[in-house]
Amino acid sequence: MFFTPLCEWVVTPAKHFSLAVSFIRQDFLSQFSGSVAGFLWLFIIPISHILIYSFVFGYIFQLRALSEFGETEFVLFMMVGYLPWFAFADAIGKSTSLLLEKAGLITKVRFPVQIIPITGTLIPYLTHMIGFCLLLLYLGFQGYSSLMWLLIPFIYFIQFLFTMGLVAILSALCVFLRDLQQIVSLAVTIWFFLTPIIYPINLIESGKIRDLFLFNPMHNFIVLYREIILLGELPYMNLWIVIPISLLSYAVGGWLFIKIKHTFGDVL
User: Fold this and answer.
1) What number of helices (H) and strands (E) belong to the chain?
2) DSSP 61
3) CA distance 40 to 64
């Protein structure tokens, strides 16, 4: 039955809440173990990215403000798309090693292994959410805030569901196909340049080619963030695209993971 594995996937965070929190705390804190700066890196890294891109695109390339986004400086335009992408790319990039790194635990201890891709997606999103919030705080002081910003947590959550489905699929398949680690790394790089993050979509003159970008879920997410944050408008078409795609990714990814998780111990 399709719905039995899906239900198990959906109820896992609530059913095993204490265990999930323990995994999240352990993996989150391990990022800063032995580090002198510790939690300060959560602020240093995003601020460094913003300053670096400001120098490269604002000073060296001297890219002009974008009139279609209310004369928004190009660096701000880019960072509004880049920071949510960074959370997505980080989660996808780490997905192929999630189960391999915990092979000893999976083969020796009986526990709901589906917690691993859930926490493996949540930690990058929590980490990079700090940088995104810093950017939003700055934009708020610059006068960009509007009631539409109340939709940002919802969009971020929908993107999280989309990512979690892909992480579940990739982490499960990589147990059997180790070459996926290199393939995924290359695919994320290609996906980045096929998503209008460091360039506006209007640079593409052909309307037919621009329409093809609608099949790129991350492009639709980036459009949502930019128009909500910078223009105070909601692009409904992009919203109606990402919601079903994200729910489908979450459902299919969870279903596949639950269906084959019993074979992980034999391979690992």
Assistant:
1) 13, 0
2) S
3) 33
How far is it, in rounded angstroms, from Cα 112 to Cα 98?
14
Nearest to 39 by CA among 99, 112, 126, 120: 126
Q: Tell me the pLDDT tens digit for each residue of 228-259.
A: 999 999 999 999 999 999 999 999 999 999 99
Spatial distance between the Cα atoms of 113 and 260, rounded to a whole number of angstroms: 11
Local structure of residue 72 (DSSP, 8 states): B
Following DSSP, what letter does each residue of 92-149 receive, concatenated? HHHHTTHHHHTHHHHHHS-S-TTHHHHHHHHHHHHHHHHHHHHHHHHHHHTT---GGG
Strand partners, 66: 72
Which residues, 6 or more positions from 30, have their beta carbon under 8 angstroms from its beta carbon?
none
Q: Is residue 71 helix, strand or coil?
A: coil
- Per-residue model confidence (pLDDT) at position 34: 61
Nearest CA to 147 among 79, 231, 85?
A: 231
Output phi, psi for 72, to 5 deg.
Answer: -65, 135
